[in-house]
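Appendix B, Record 12. Input sequence as logged:
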Amino acid sequence: MLLGFLAALLSWALFGLTLARYTRRPSWHNALYSLGLFLFALAVSAELLAKLQGAWTPFLYRLWYLTGAMHGVTFLGLGSLALLNPRAARGLLLLLLPLVLYGLFLVLTAPLDLARLPAPYAPSGAAFPPPGLTSPRLWTIPFNLLGTLLMAGVALYTTALFWRKNPLRAQGTALVFLAALVLASTSTLNRFGVVGLEELGRALGVGLLFLGVVLADRSVRYAGGRA
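Logged structural output:
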């Protein structure tokens, strides 16, 4: 439970930090990253509330699935892409928008049976129908894969680019890369039925992400002043 509280606290703190940065210097990077962190914080908080009350409610479960299981890293990945190429991020967002809306429709309307969960508050997609074109469980795969690849790829590229020019910034982006790997690993294990590591994975992932953003902010402005 302590890890759940820590993950929620760090998630909201990082969202506040990024939103404040956006209000000071609006940009696509900060807008998408703020949205991604807001969704992530909602997901972690919904999961914590379910554990505190001992079971999911239909509302909390659908909220967690949409903001965490489906879009936990989607907009973080788009924000990372916008850091390097805002035009490409806008174009990809427009391409993804119909699928995002379709995923929202499925999460809100798909049949839900919480009794199929391995535990009353387990963060598992088993309450929805098996993966298929009309089941939300299928659509978590491409969204998570795309978001993780973008987030980790940009972080790795930036780390290599600034390793000698700006070691502090490189260290920050390296932590973002590790955060993406930890969050992706937690989600993958959950998808294959390995539950019980969510709190540790969320807390460690968001902790690495928080430290990475703070270190990068203390070095130089992202992408020549866009951050």
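The CA atoms of residues 70 and 140 lie 4 Å apart.
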